[in-house]
Amino acid sequence: MPVLPRSLEIQGEISAIRRDIHAHPELAYEENRTSDIVAAKLAEWGLEVTRGLGKTGLVGTLRKGNSLKSIGLRADMDCLPMDETNDFEHASRNPGRMHACGHDGHTAMLLGAAKVLSEKRDFEGAVHFIFQPAEEGGGGGKAMIDEGLFEKFPCDAVFAIHNKPGLPLGMIATKPGPLLAAADRWDLRIAGKGGHAAHPHLSLDPLIVAANLVLSLQTIVSRNMDPFASSVVTVGFVKGGSAYNVIPTDAHVGGTTRTTTPEARKLIEARIREICEGAAKMYGVSIDVEYRYGYPPTINNAQRAAFAIDVAAGVCGPHGVRDNVQASMGAEDFSYMLEKVPGAMVWLGNGGEDGNGAGLHNSRYDFNDMAIPFGVSFFVNTVERFLGEKSAG
């Protein structure tokens, strides 16, 4: 089954909503206008609307029949804190705010699916359309869960789409297991002894320690991790000193770690602490290590991922799917939902496969409206298959 004819018929309407949201981007937990638009559309189409989960998050529910089976579909609504450099008509009108990750498209596609399903109702059970705030670092998915998302709206499975620049338009890709990485941050604060640059022997130079740490941290991936395990340790900054002829008293090294398994996450944290402990003893300084866990890895349930690929093949054709893509070292807070409910995230091609399109978090990025029918069709077919009388999964 190719894209649904109805998804093509409503493409203009859904694209207009998408462009309106793009022109009025809102940061994490400030998505009031966007949430108002979503709630109004869902109510117009006859869905039950529950607002206020995770502050600006909301859930629209569509029910049919007496079946207790249920499914969740998720989209994120927030933008990034950056300026847009596009000059088209729907470019951001809010300085310092931009939909540079396609959340406007994710929201619009889920609205499109809600509209089509409200018209067809070719399923038995409940569909929960989850519109979450604050994906960009704010943990909006976790906030909704902490406020009872899956207690109030039980789901037997949960699915999400994220657009993928560079993946051909009309293609859907995913994989079982880790699809995206955990994203952690760490700060190493070195306390030494400052002094005159002409008399280094009277000081404990924290910059020498910082330089040693920058190099030593790279041995974690190259020497402690399985070569086939995907992990990244990146130093983002080194701060210290303010004058040419002064050895500073302290220095600050900060960075990020990306891992795709809980085991790798724990190993890298342990090695960072051990390296700092050794460096402190070797150089006679003290090093305070602050390691902060961010989003966990986005791990697709194997059965749900296979189900999603089967649905995608019906939308995009057998040559329009990839079922074993390489995991991305980016991170997603849909991971929190996958920790609670078996499900899967898929990537939807945004085009730009020739390398000329702007990537995510780029000031010239824009979601491709031509991808909307594919996303809407995937969501609709996922629901009808999963909640159908003979549904798989």
List keywords for this structure.
393 residues, alpha/beta, Aminopeptidase, Alpha-Beta Plaits, 8-stranded mixed beta sheet, 4-stranded antiparallel beta sheet, 11 helices, 16 strands, 35% helix, 24% strand, elongated
Describe this structure in words.
The protein has 393 residues and is α/β, with parallel strands linked by helices. It folds into two domains: 5-180 and 297-386, Zn peptidases (Aminopeptidase, 3-Layer(aba) Sandwich); 182-292, Alpha-Beta Plaits. Helix content is 35%, strand content 24%. It has eleven helices and 16 strands. α4 (103-120) crosses α11 (372-386) and α7 packs antiparallel against α8. The chain is elongated, with a radius of gyration of 24 Å. The chain starts with a helix and ends in a 7-residue tail after the last helix. 48% of the residues are buried. The model has no long low-confidence stretch (mean pLDDT 96).
